[in-house]
Structures are given as structure tokens and as C-alpha cells.
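All the exercises in this workshop are built on plain-text protein records. The record below serves as our worked example for the rest of this section.
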Amino acid sequence: MLKRLVLLLQLVLRFLLLALLYSKMVKFVRTLNFFGNVCLRQLIATNSLRGKIVGLGGKHNPFFQAEPSQIVTKAILLVGVLVALALLPANLPAFSFGGKNAEEKKLVIPDFDNVRDQYAYAVSMQQSMLPSTDKKRRRVQLDRLIQCYSKVVENFPEDKTFTPVAYVTVAECYMARGDERLAYSMFQQAMQKWSDNDYIVARCMLDIANAYDRSQRYSEAQKLYKEIMERFKDSKVPGVSDIIARARARYYTAKEEPTAPVKKSPFSFLKRLNPFRQ
């Protein structure tokens, strides 16, 4: 459903952009109209086009009943519209007249009077953002999320409900962006600062364990997964049970580290190229 709405929005934006190009082209055509009009009238005056303009029986061709200036205008506009359609990018939201991707422009974040609204703005930004498969655009998206959630931390540092979650979300964005060291440091700081918050501690531990798992440090990942299950099994804090369920799923599906070095096959690159591998 969301993809259909995005496609519909792209079609609407494409139509609006085409209308804008058309209006801009009208002004441009007026500057060229005079020269085309002079040339066309000269050709008509020399009878070079008279055989094409006048049909059988002395009747005029309907297309050429308009003034030569209108003919030139319609012809140039038609060519311009066709060229504009051909040049319109397939991914319209990434297109901008300024020559710079609109997502790369600095994000202006409003300052709210309370932490709830500030956090809600960041969440709405994240929910309205369709994650891009392009690495460059995805990095821009993550930067925007970091700005939004960092605003919560900066404006309301003493809050103990929304600010901790915003802080951890910023760390997760850094992790997704590839800044593992910074993210790991932020996870450690969050667990120390909000050590009495089971949800924050469990979420940070799960993020670190997942990072270990992705980097093939399987024994360390399984150790953390097991610690999450045992440490928070009796916690009644909302959201912790979901983290425990995810940790349990990862604990029983995580791979074991090889006991001996595995000889690298000359065809191992094919495994990396397999899009269906886990």
C-alpha cells in the first residue's frame, strides 16, 4: 500500500514538474518566436512552402491556418515537452532544480516546548522515510535522523523517558552508517547513565550483540544474547519482553565460530555475490 502511494505521489509530482517546465518554456519560446516567424514568412514569400500549405482545390491545410508565429510556438513547445519527458528522472524525489539533491540540504528542525512533541517529530520523520537502497542516499537519510533525535537529547538532557530512547536511536543510526566505534561508545555510555532503565540496557546489549554477530564474533554475540535472556527474564518494563524474544531467536540461530582456520576457496567470491545468503 505504501509503495502504491509513493508511486502515485511520484506521478503527481511528475505532472506538476512538467507543467512548470511548460510554463518556463513558453517564456523561452517567445524569445525565439520572432526569428522563426521571420524565417517561415520568408519561405512562404518565396513559394517554397506554398505547395504544402495550399491543398487541392485551393483549400488551405487546417494546420497552417494559424499565424506562422503560432506554428513556430506550437512546434517548439511540442519538441520541448517531449524532451522534458525524456529527461525526467525515474526517481523523481531525488531531482531538484538547484542541481543538488534536496535530501542533502541542511535539515531545519523546529524547537518544541516539551520533550514529547520534540520526540514525536523525530519519530514522524523516521516513519515517513522510506529507507533507500542506494548507499549515498541512505547515509543522507541516517544523517537526517541523527539530527532529529539529537535535537531531543540537546534540548531535554534531563528527561528520563524520551531522551534515553532518542540517544540510543542516534547510536543505532551511527551503527547503520558504519561508525561502529562511535556507536559502541554511545551504547556503553547509555548503559552507564541509565543503568536503572531495563529497556535501555537490554536494547543496547542487543545492538552490541547483533554487531558482534555481523562481524562474525559469534561466541561473544551468543554470550550477550544469553545474558539478555537471563538478566531480564523477570522484567515488567514495556518493550523488554520483545527484546528478550529477539535475543532468544538470535541465540538459537547464531552460527558457531570455526574451531580451525578454514581454507579459502578460489571460488569463495561467488558466496559473497549470492543475494540469497544469510
About this structure: Residues 2-45 form the longest helix (44 residues). Confidence is low (pLDDT under 50) at residues 48-66, 90-100, 269-278. The two ends are 27 Å apart (CA to CA). The CA atoms of residues 214 and 221 lie 9 Å apart.
